[in-house]
Amino acid sequence: MPTTSYADQFAAALAAGEGPAWLPALRERAFARFHALGFPTTRDEDWHFTSVTPIAERTFKAIRPAATTLTLADLEAHLLDPDWHRLVFVNGRLEPALSTFAGLPAEVQVSTLSEALREQPEWVQKHLGTLAAFDTAAFTALNTAFMQDGVVVRVPKGEVVEVALHILHVTDAQAQGAAIHPRLLVVAEPLAQLTLVESHVAVGAPSYLVNAVAEISVANGARVDHYKLQRESAEAYHVGTVQVTQGRDSIYHSFSFAEGAALSRTNVYTKLAGTGSEARLNGLYVLDGAQHADHQTFVEHLAEACASRELYKGILDGESHGVFNGKVYVDPVAQRTDGKQTNKALILSEKARVDTKPQLEIFADDVKCTHGATVGRLEQLPLFYLKSRGIGAENARALLTYAFAAEVLETIEVDALRVTLEKAIFERFTHHRMD
Question: What is the per-residue burial (b if ≥16 Cβ within 10 Å, else e) of 200-239?
Fold first, then answer.
């Protein structure tokens, strides 16, 4: 699909851009690659079930947002826990008055990308763009060319950040027709630990594009828990890519929650590059109306004795469409690999549909790898049991739907987040149905 409509925007952004001398060259390489690739089409294997025509057929404008008038009271529903470290971006711009770093260890570096480029350009150059390759990924190339701002986190060796870091991206009416390209760079050095919550939410119902890219390096013995919540406007488009590399005995735990956007795509890719490393990739998407949500995972086992666990679930109503494509690659050197992937979808209407495609590529002999995918409707026996106990048909369906979601929500190890999502799901399916 054509990309020439962004050429003028890119030239203007490059001319007005600030930053170290190496940054324009990175942007230019990325935009050239985006222009060469074009937007993906359904002829591309990884996009076979997801058409990005609604994104490609319009040109989203660059945004230079004014200072926000939003207050913490306006964002109360999205703050999750007032004690967390918090960075709030409104339409791509950091709002210091809404952010807080109370109690953050002095050795831990958390800053905006623009600040990091000014204060430690050599360190940023060493990491930025090294994990999230854009050779074959058009949206990653587009983000790298246009990335406006974002967050850089560096957790030094042995440091444990006890309190979660919450990055809250908010859009409002100013974002109408605009594209926002946030970037996240996380480097967890050996034996470091960090819990990161990344939220994408909207105030009102503007139509816009969020194209987010995260690069996460988890060094030997380090652990990163990364929770991503996609709750965009119902008129919005969201593409998010997370690219992770893991060292020896490291742990990366990902949870993806999606209930917003007209069209969304979430990619979570990790490379288990060190012996004994572990990846846990879980997710839940809840769709209605004409929503379309696509989740793609790719776990590369590149070292011995590594483990991966995946559990993704979807609940679909209306005419919605869900997609899950999970790939597991086991390199010949990755003996004693232990991998398990499970994908389940619950269909609540006649017109909702799911496409699921688990893929295993195994080139080692000593491995345990399994995958399973199920798509179905609510079982009649539990419904009958609940109704026989005096629970009405609508209430019974709501309770069973909540129970279906609860299994994957239980994998969330952050209490405030798990309770918030459990409450949201419970209210969604029992609202106005319970006596």
Answer: bbbbeebbbbbbbbbbbbbbbbbbbbbbbbbbbbeebbbb
Which residues constitute the domain of residue 392?
A: 378-435
- Residue that finishes a domain, picked among 250, 274, 298: 274
Of 230, 257, 274, the residue at which a domain comes to its end is: 274
**What does the mean pLDDT of the chain come to?**
91
Contact 194, 218 (CB under 8 A): no
Residue 290 in any domain: the answer is no
Q: Enumerate residues 6+ apart whose C-beta is below 8 A from 69.
A: none
Provide φ and ψ at 256, rounded to 5°: -115, 125
Whether residue 285 is contained in a domain is answered as: no
pLDDT tens figures, 207-233: 999 999 999 999 999 999 999 999 999
Average the pLDDT over 301-308 and give the result: 97
Q: What is the pLDDT of residue 292?
A: 98
Query: How far is the C-alpha of 180 from the C-alpha of 216, rounded, in Å?
Result: 20
Paired strand residues for 361: 329
Strand partners, 116: none
pTM, full prediction: 0.93
Considering the domain boundaries, does residue 56 fall inside one?
Answer: yes
Residue 86 lies in a domain: yes
Helix (H) or strand (E) holding 399: helix 393-409
Instruction: Indicate if 269 and 389 belong to the same structural domain.
Output: no
Cβ-proximal residues to 299 (8 Å cutoff; 6+ apart), any chain: 269, 270, 272, 279, 281, 308, 310, 326, 327, 328, 329, 339
> What span, in angstroms and rounded, lies between the C-alpha atoms of 226 and 254?
5
Give residues with Cβ within 8 angstroms of 79, minimum separation 6.
Answer: 72, 86, 166, 168
| Model confidence at 263: pLDDT above 70 | yes
Residue type, 351: K
Q: Which two tokens stand for residue 303?
A: 């070292």
Q: Give φ, ψ of 10 to 5 degrees.
A: -65, -45
Indicate if 43 and 172 belong to the same structural domain. Answer: yes
Task: Return phi, psi of residue 187, to 5°.
Answer: -125, 110
Number of structural domains in the chain: 2
- Reduced to 3 states (helix: H, G, I; strand: E, B; else coil), residue 53 is helix
